[in-house]
Amino acid sequence: MKIFTTREALQKHLQQARAAHKTIGLVPTMGALHQGHVSLIKQAQACNDEIICSIFVNPTQFNDPKDLEKYPRTIEADIQMLEQANCDILFSPDEKEMYDGNEQWHLDIGGLENLLEGKFRPGHYQGVTQIVYKLFSLVKPDTAFFGQKDYQQFLVISKMVELLSLPVKLVMCPIKREPDGLAMSSRNIHLTPDDRQHALTLSKTLDWIEGNFDAGNITGLKRNAELMIGNEPGIELEYFEIADGDTLLPAVEDSKKVVALVAARAGKTRLIDNVILSLKP
Ligand code: PAF
Hints:
Rossmann fold; binds pantoate; 281 residues; 9 strands; 3-stranded antiparallel beta sheet; single chain; 10 helices
């Protein structure tokens, strides 16, 4: 695997790849890689000739400096994992390489900005679109791969691609789970054994919702889910929503796509999870 830390070196390499008519797949990450990320790499390999994984803990998407400071950084293990997955290129710039210190960014992404994650993490999606735009401009990927776990992020990035007419295809890859159902996340590293046990209530509640989904009883289902999670010790629920899969506004009976989304703190660790409930033709 080739490792680049500067934009210039990466661009030089990409020019050669493009001259050889290779298609380029980009998997943007913040590192602390797990099997969920590996599944993105595998999906990318199935669709493209040359795969780039970026690792950059992007400061502008953290509204809480403590969260940024304690975000896991495991670059040696990440490199090993990417090598085992046969990833072609790792791009791991430092902060100076990505930001010149004097930048303005604002993209009007409409209602998605202040709902759910946006409400609990003000400014988060401005930071996400800012860095993803930079990566897209640099790499000019044919296809970019993101996990379903950050469902709202995928909608926000899709909106950016549409607003700015960016020539990239986006692919959303399914959530990877531990055998007991916990959604894989870089943040799981911070869970104590007790937190981890309590955190299972999130996937269990989403399973229950999936098993009992009835578009005519969304309010009742949501109330039950809130009670299930609210009654779990050690868990502080931020939101549980059964939402329209396109707008993330509360779902209505004839929403074409419905998704249940949850965010909660297990001890000190903030976790998110979701399940797509129905896809109507
Ligand atoms: O999903 C993530 O890891 C990040 O939000 C992303 C897309 C790499 C942007 O920093």
